[in-house]
Amino acid sequence: MIDTVWKYLTDNPLARWIGAAFVFLIGWEVVKRNLKEAGRQAERQASAVKQAQAREAVVTRSAEIITTERENSDAALEARDNINPAPSFDELPDEIQRVLDRSARGGQTP
User: Of 17, 34, 75, 83, which one has the fewest beta carbons inside 10 Å?
Assistant: First the structure.
C-alpha cells in the first residue's frame, strides 16, 4: 500500500507540484520564524544597551548630586563656623564683664 501511494506521488506531475509547493511553504515559514527571532534578539540587545546607558546616566547624575550636596553642606558649615554671633569676653562692656566674672566666682565680689 505504501509503495502504491509513493509510486502515485512520484509519478504524478500534479502531485509533485503540490508536494514542491508544500515543501516551499514549510521552508518559507521556517525562514520567517528565523527572521522574526533574529529581529527579537536584535531588539533585546538594543534595549539592553539603552538600559545600561540609562543606568550609567542615573549613577553619574546621582554622584554629581551627592558631590554638590556635600560641597554645599561643607560650605554652609564653614560659613556658620566663621560667623561669631557672640562677642568674646574682652569685647563686652565693663559692667557685663563684672557680672559675668562674679558669676564665674560664685557670686562673690573681688
Answer: 83
pLDDT digits (tens, 9 = 90+) for 25-46: 999 999 999 999 999 999 999 9
Q: Residue 72 and residue 78: Cα distance in Å, rounded?
A: 10
C-alpha cell at 14: 500534479
Considering only CA atoms, which of 81, 80, 98 is closest in space to residue 89?
A: 98
Q: Which pTM value belongs to this model?
A: 0.48
Rounded (5°) CA angle 77-83-88: 130
Nearest 5°: phi and psi at 105? -95, 10
- Tell me the residue length of the chain: 110
Q: What is the pLDDT of residue 39?
A: 96
